[in-house]
What we know:
By secondary structure, this protein is of the alpha+beta class. Helix content is 28%, strand content 24%.
Amino acid sequence: MSTTARTGPARAPDVPELPEVETVARLIRRPLVGRRIEGTHVAWERTLGGQPKRAFSRSVRGAHVAAVERRGKYVILVLERDGENAGRILVHLRMTGRLHVDPAGEPERDYTRVVCRLDDGAELRFVDVRKFGRFRFLRDPDEVLGELGPEPLEDGFDATWLRGALRARKRLLKPLLLDQTFLAGLGNIYVDEALHQARLHPLAPAHRVSAPKAAALAEAIRTTLAEAIEREGSSFDVFYRTPEGNPGSYQHQFQVYGRTGKPCRRCGTLVRRIVVGQRGTHLCPRCQPKPRG
DNA sequence: AGCTACTCCTGGTAGC
DNA sequence: TGCTACCAGGAGTAGC
Length: 293
């Protein structure tokens, strides 16, 4: 494993973004939908996002999981009682959060923060090393989901929308794309990848991005995310079935992310790492020239 | 409005 | 080998 001077090893991305969250939602949907939550165990209360564990337990116990959805980087468990809406569990994986549905008798997992026991003996387990993740019950999920920007893979997000939205914002491109109220689901990895594909510099002012560049960016965002979802459909489940959960078991074909000091796959120029808004940012100085002024 | 800095956390790594 | 110091990072918040 090679390392770079100041940035540490080019590690596998363990930070879930839209494609990873979508893959998780698909994986847990089948074993979860139709199940009844019999009880809960909360090992780290702050994971609940402020609700006391007793109240949380009362909120979800006895409810059925009617559907598993995704919005931005949230996994959404739709709860019902007697066929009536009974609120939602919103799961945000943040950095190291993992969701597992383990059949009865599976050994416990390290770093398990919240468990929902199901009526077939299986357990929904929220595992999270760094404790940044959230597993929240909300009667009205719109108070959270209503703040989110559009879904990049759905109607409503296209070149026209993006061009107009960029023109209206006097912000740097990368921090804007990371802002979930602007666009839902992008994180550090896919922003770097999409900007590279569209040949845009992360420090470019949003309102100065040309119409053709905005169109290229919209396309880059869609293809980057869609391809990642495709890949993870075949490989991420392997990772999720491994009790150790080794993130190295699936590899992405990243162009710039985590490739500091390595040649750009398009032009061979060495990939640079800069810091934008306190986040490590990877770019090709030749493909993504710095804007002037 | 939009920027920076700080907070939450812990495993992994660098440097001794 | 073993210790300590520091880093990564999504999102919320405070302060300018």
